[in-house]
């Protein structure tokens, strides 16, 4: 009897070891904990990059252009429906490098110093040779109140309903000539978050010494009248980071800590722009990085590529359950 019990105990121990080594029962990989970032691919088909522009259009995630070390601009366009398999549709995009991408009025748009659109991502038409606001660096184009809005680089705001006629709706805004900030539309308002102004801080920041970075939060219901709802958020001052709207909340992701000359890898969310919560993944997530490409797609929040020193071409997905509230 004792021998039989001993043999049974050994068998159970060996079984548990197999499960632990395989990561799950019956040799299946263990499911990641809920509320966790999942690495969909460590190396996508497109080359490593940061400052790539994103768009969700025609049921696909699109990634356009990108920076590589040495100030090399990659001029290509890819799409994916799962984040793992990417299809290249262009090796030489006709629109300007680093054009802001947005889906609007049944087309994909590329906007920088000129304006282009496409019904399919393959065939592009230039609809405006020269924008009135010129070539802006680290600005954003968002869809708000049935128009496309250009903001987040400078102290002005522009909008258009056709990509051809642009109206400057405001200038000399109270947040100043802000750049490299996070911009989004959330709860019927435009939001400008953090970023930098090109003037030295006191004491000088360790990164770009001619920049002062912020952790404030501004919003506007019309693009004209702006309110600072928070002067100092609980997350550190930053630039080159991304805002997105997911699971009924506004999120910010990563960025560059110019004060300390390093990257952020944190993720924060808010429901009102004033009270912020740090999102803690239940499993190890993506590495610190700035200028990642972020999507809200397929009931998930995605972080793709970005600059970790070196630049990356990985893809990560966060899928929260319905009604999630940490």
Explained architecture:
By secondary structure, this protein is mainly beta. The protein has a domain at 132-280: Kelch-type beta propeller (Neuraminidase, 6 Propeller). The chain is 6% helix and 44% strand. The strands form 6 sheets. Strands 1-24-23-22 form a 4-stranded antiparallel β-sheet, with no helix packed on it. Strand 22 and strand 23 form a beta hairpin. The longest helix has 21 residues, at 2-22. The protein starts with a helix and ends in an 8-residue tail after the last strand.
List key phrases describing it.
globular; four-stranded antiparallel beta sheet; mainly beta; Neuraminidase; 326 residues
CATH level-two architecture of the domain at 132-280: 6 Propeller
> How are strands sequenced across the largest beta sheet?
1-24-23-22
Model regions low in confidence, pLDDT < 50 over at least 5 residues: 1-25
Question: How far from one another are the termini?
Answer: 51 Å
CATH superfamily of the domain at 132-280: Kelch-type beta propeller
- Elements, N to C (H/E): HEEEEEEEEEEEEEEEEEEEEEEEE
Helix content: under 10%
Query: CATH class of the domain at 132-280, anyone?
Result: Mainly Beta
Pairing-aware structural class of the strands and helices? mainly beta
Number of H/I helices: 1
